[in-house]
Write a structure and sequence with these properties.
The N terminus is likely disordered. The protein is α/β, with parallel strands linked by helices. The protein starts with a helix and ends in a 13-residue tail after the last strand. It is built from eight helices and 15 strands. The chain has an eight-stranded mixed β-sheet. It has a single domain, classed as 4-Layer Sandwich (Metallo-beta-lactamase, Chain A).
Length: 287
């Protein structure tokens, strides 16, 4: 358990000063404060501080969305042929816990999570819990380095549905090689949970959001809704949720889930924080 963070929070808040954004749905500069290195404090309250971290900045080709929405729309919104994107990890700090949401791509694949945690003066050994939205490689690759656990003291949380979907008899079994390595390394630390569970003394609430994978899960922490791969291209799918990336396991279910979650966030005054959004904190109130 970490109980050292008043100094850390103050230092981080002072260091994250210049804000820039390319999305009309972004929160204002007084709530999102990037430091220019792909790190931003998104939420500060007496209960929790949430920080967004770009593990990697990248793009999504329009080809990934063809067939799910008109080519004319893709050309209009992405005339250069790709949408700005990222691979994100979120860090939540409370008086009692130091928590990650997803673990990124992994340093061997170019992920910068460990470098950025070091910048924040957070060591991997201090992480108490890691909440996985799902088990694709760009979300769990960062759990291992040279075949060994990167976060040796962390409990790994994921939904029962996702856990079952990736076992050898599940629908995602053909993609589970990396997960089997992670499971072998963290076997005694893996903690499945059910839809709606409140975890870590109520700090985190889990909600199933299937479609991208069978047990894909979103999390509420503070006023942020950590939505994993609900969105792959924010400039497209925020206003056209019917558009799907080919990565979605069940595209029809993914569309239904996306619409439901966007409405849920809007009705409950929550900010979206996606794993592939270039903005860490998206205000959906005007959608």
């Amino acid at each position: 358990m970490m109980k050292y963070l008043p100094f850390f929070v103050c230092a981080l808040a002072l260091s994250l000063v210049s804000c820039h954004s390319n999305s009309s749905q972004s929160a204002s500069s007084d709530t999102v404060k990037p430091n220019g290195d792909g790190i931003a404090v998104m939420n500060e309250s007496s209960e929790v501080t949430v920080t967004g971290i770009h593990d990697l900045e990248n793009s999504m080709s329009v080809d990934l969305f063809k067939g799910s929405c008109p080519d004319s729309l893709l050309k209009r919104l992405a005339p250069e042929g790709s949408f700005k994107s990222a691979i994100n990890v979120y860090l939540a700090i409370s008086d009692d816990y130091l928590v990650l949401f997803d673990a990124g791509l992994g340093a061997d694949k170019g992920g910068k999570l460990l470098e950025k945690l070091a910048y924040l003066h957070v060591s991997p050994e201090e992480i108490d819990a890691i909440f996985l939205t799902h088990l694709h490689a760009d979300h769990i690759g960062g759990l291992l380095k040279d075949g060994k656990p990167v976060f040796p003291n962390a409990t790994i949380y994921l939904s029962v549905d996702e856990f079952n979907a990736w076992n050898d008899n599940g629908p995602m079994a053909s993609q589970n090689a990396l997960w089997k390595k992670v499971l072998a390394s963290y076997a005694l630390q893996v903690q499945p949970f059910n839809d709606g569970d409140r975890l870590l003394d109520g700090l985190v609430t889990a909600r199933l959001a299937p479609g991208h994978t069978p047990g894909h899960t979103i999390y509420t922490v503070g006023n942020n809704l950590i939505v994993g791969d609900l969105l792959h291209a924010q400039d497209l799918q925020l206003t056209h949720p019917e558009c799907c990336a080919r990565y979605d396991n069940n595209s029809a279910q993914a569309v239904t889930t996306r619409k439901e979650v966007l409405q849920y966030a809007k009705e409950n005054g929550l900010y979206l924080s996606g794993a592939h959004c270039y903005d860490f904190k998206i205000d959906v109130s005007s959608l």
